[in-house]
Amino acid sequence: DKPDSTPLELDVIAFQAIIYGRHQSRSLTSYEKAINEAAAHLALENPTLLSKKGDLFKQAKKKLLDDGFVYKRGKSRSKLTKEIPQSSLRRQTSLPKRQENAERASLERQEKIKCLEKKVEDILRSRQVTENELEACSYDIINERSTMEAKIVSYEDEKRQLTRQISKLKAQERKHKWYYRRKSENGSSNSSQTADDEFSSQLSLSFNSRK
């Protein structure tokens, strides 16, 4: 299985997805910040977009429309509507509503994780009981021993499947929390250049620490 992305790897993806402000010292407009946030979100979901910045930019603009972003000069003159099909405009959803849905999905994931972890605990207990019975079982009772051994294998397979589900859900939850934490931090930032400098410094420190 592919290992989960580390926080540093997520930061690298988000940094590479920046559309506006990477080489500028001025403060970004709300539109430019929103485009960067949308691009980061899309790149985290599909890192292959990093090699197609044009597609990433178009999808980021579409995401803003879907999120209900309103350009301060009015949508009729907005950069967002350029080259965006009119059908996309009809699918707009308010940003608070999408955030509410994201939080609801997060809570559902957490509940599912707890449920799956409880199942794993039950399986481990059942497997231990069967292993104890197998150890106490006479070697002369071949059929009974074979049945117990098959049950142990079945328990292990089920545990492995549940563990994979838990790992996937936890990775999604970490990405959800990371994205909204970063979005909150970016919202309070006055300059994208400052963020770039801090990120570059973190990368340098991380690289030097590995030498």
TrEMBL record:
Basic and acidic residues compositional bias, start-end: 97-107
Organism: Rhizopus stolonifer
Region Disordered, annotated ranges: 78-107, 179-211
Keyword Coiled coil: yes
Matching InterPro entries: NAB_co-repressor_dom, NCD2_sf
Name of this chain's protein: NAB co-repressor domain-containing protein
Polar residues bias spans: 84-96, 186-211
Domain NAB co-repressor: 7-77
Alphabetical UniProt keywords: Coiled coil
A GO cellular component entry from the record: nucleus
Gene3D superfamilies named in the record: NAB conserved domain 2 (1.20.120.2010)
Pfam family, any one: NCD2
GO biological process: negative regulation of DNA-templated transcription
Coiled coil spans: 113-175
Highest taxon of source: Eukaryota
Entry keyword annotation includes Plastid: no
